[in-house]
Every structure is written in structure tokens, then in C-alpha cells.
Amino acid sequence: MKIPPFLTVAVVLGLASAVMFAQARKLDRQVAVTIDDLPAGMADRLPAADITALTTKLLTTLRDQKVPAVGFVNEKKLYKPGEVDERIRCLQLWLDYGFELGNHTFTHMSLNQAGLKAWEDDVIQGESVTKLLLAQHRMKLRYFRHPYLDTGRDLATRREAEMFLVERGYRIAPITLDGWDWMFAGLYEDAKKRSDAVLQQQIVKEYLAYHDAVFAYAEQLSAKVVGYEPKQILLLHASNLEADHIGELLDVLRKRGYRLITLEDALGDAAYSLPDTYVGEEGTGWIDHWAISQGKIPQGAPPFPQWVMERTKDLHLSTGQVSAQPSN
Ligand SMILES: [Zn+2]
Asked: CB of 112 within 8 A of CB of 283?
């Protein structure tokens, strides 16, 4: 009997994907999800009702899929006249849904731009509401994420800031996976506002493909720098893009063989105790930190899609509404 050609292809493809799936599973990759810039990256442009909607949608997906997450707060974004209560309720949602909150400074201040003292004050000012909300859930404020991933331009400042954070009871939350979702999110927000479904679709496709490429690159770099793939920590931002599409991004991770774990679990990986003497004008992820500390220059990172960069820039020039500022 002759097998129809389409069936052969289907069988081969089926086998190939089964093999790839088995390989991915064998690796037992693990990743923790962290989401910055709460209550929302674009909180200054979005009404509180929109922030509530996107927060609810985002958290519902995470809860339904049993994905642990920590959200990092910029409390300054709460103080919009007439909306303070609702914005605080958005943070409360995170805890009501069973997630955790961390500090991301009050104003999203860069340690590389501000003086150490001003920055420390911003860290302290960023604690007030979050601490109270956590206390209501019998939780303590224990995680800190550096805005823009800026950890200091010189080692003395970096170490002083770290000591300050430890003394205040923080564990620094590094990141190892970063697909610049905030950049896609700005463009997506604009397309959504104009009901441009075609552009939204293009953005989502590119956002997923770029993240997949970033994950592949980080896995390879991990092996070279750490000697294995550590429990990774993914950086995302609170936005309509994530609210609408984080489920698809989680599928990308699962296809690569990842299990979703807590930040606490991830931080237990020995990689996060590796020597790290990185300093620089530009903040970057921790695999880069470790590589540079070893005298290795990380190479071969996938280029960020040019058209997304250009459209974002155009948008900034023509409307002035979507900021092209990095908001790590
Ligand atoms: Zn940020």
C-alpha cells in the first residue's frame, strides 16, 4: 500500500515535533515572571478604569494558568487627582489574586542618573502604600527591582546601594530574559486606541517572535557564561499588550520547555551568587553582568525589529503621546 505524500509529511513533522518536545522537556527549563511599572507602564496616559481593566485581564490569565508573578510598583503613578483610590485598588488586585508586590522606586528613578542619596530617598518613598497593602495580606515588602536595570555607574555606588537595600530588608530581583516588551507595548497601545486590528496583529506576531529569539539567545549565552541554564527571570511590563497577549507568550515559553516558578524559587539558583562587578552607563540583564565580570563580551543578541523601533519613533514625533523612553 502506498502512503499518501501528505500523510508522510504529517508523520515526519509529528515525529520531529515529538522529538523536540521531548528534548525541551528533558532540559526542564524554569522561569519566573516579573512585571514592572505598576500600576501600568502608561499610567500617566490611561484613565484609572482602563488600568483596572488591563490589570484584571492580566491577573486573570496568570491566575487561571497558575503562573506565579511579582509586580514592581512605582507609587508616584497612584497620585492622579480623583483616581487615587481606584489606582490603589489596582495594586490591591495583585494581592487579592494571590500575587506579590515589590518596590521599583517611587518615581522610576535611575541610579545612574540620580545621586545615591536622592535615589535612596526615592526607594523609601516608594514603600508607603505597597507596604500597607502587603501588611493587610500578612506579607512583607521583600523585593526590589532597579528602574532601567541601572545598578550604578561605578562599583562603589553600586555596592553602597546594594548595602542600603539589604539593610532595608530587600532582596534585589535581577532579570535574565528581556524582550523589551515595553517598546512593543507603546506601539500596541496606539494601534489599539485607533482600533487598527491589522497593526495590532503585526505587533503581536513580532513581539512573540522576538521574545522567542531572545529566549534562544539567553539559553545559549547562559550555557557559555554560567555553564548551564539557570532558573531564568523574565522582565515584562504592565500594559494592554501583556493583558491581551501574555497567554501566547507563556505558550512560547512552554514550547521551549519552561516551567513557570516563583521568583523566590528562581533566586535559589546558585547563578545569582556568581561574581558580578558589572558597572556601566546602560543597565542590562544579569547574564550580561556575569559575562562581563568574566571578561567575556556577549555577542550575537538578536536585533530588535527595526520597523517597531521606527514606528515608535515616528509616533513620538507626530503625536508626542507614546514615549520612546526605555522603561525597564
Ligand atoms: Zn521599570
From this structure: yes
